[in-house]
Amino acid sequence: MKNHSLITNIFAIINMLLFAPAILAFIDIYLSIYEIIAPVIVTKSGDPIEVAQSLSVALVNQLLLVITVTPAILFVLLLSFKAEYNESWYVRSLKMSSWLMIFTLPFFLFVGLLMLFLSSRAKKNA
What transmembrane ranges does the database entry give (predicted)? Predict the structure, then answer.
């Protein structure tokens, strides 16, 4: 483990806070699925137009959240490649957020796989 400066540690903490939209997207997509499926199950019929609108709203929300996570992705790239930051709490939180993003289909899948790769890379640098 390298001895990192206080600025690098603060930068890593801010970076983890920037992943809050990823957690919101994880919750949002599953609540949206419930919102789409629940009326169909209860009434035994569903309006296809409402289902399509709900799906499009869920996908647009997820795409907007991917755009808001973009600065965090850039910070992770900077910390992983330039600063070689590999503190154990950072690697664990990066791994946890990457798995949340992998299960938040479809848009966050690629971002989650990238974060998982970067977390394993940071671990190798240790």
Answer: 6-34, 55-79, 99-118
Give the separation between CA 29 and CA 101, rounded to whole angstroms.
Answer: 11
Nearest Cα to 61, choosing from 31, 102, 100, 39?
31
**Residue with tokens 């957020």, as numbered in its chain:** 97
As a whole number of angstroms, the distance between CA 55 and CA 46 comes to 13
Spatial separation of the C-alpha atoms in residues 60 and 47, rounded to whole Å:
20
What are the residue boundaries of the structural domains of the chain, listed by start? Answer: 6-124
Q: pTM of the full predicted structure?
A: 0.74
Cα–Cα distance for residue pair 100/82, rounded to 1 Å: 25
Distance between CA atoms of residues 32 and 1, nearest Å: 42
Q: What is the per-residue pLDDT across 29-86, written as a single tens digit (0 to 9) for each?
A: 888 888 888 888 888 777 888 888 888 888 888 888 888 888 888 888 888 788 778 8
DSSP letters spanning 41-60: HHHS---HHHHHHHHHHHHH
Cβ-contact 59, 100 below 8 angstroms: no
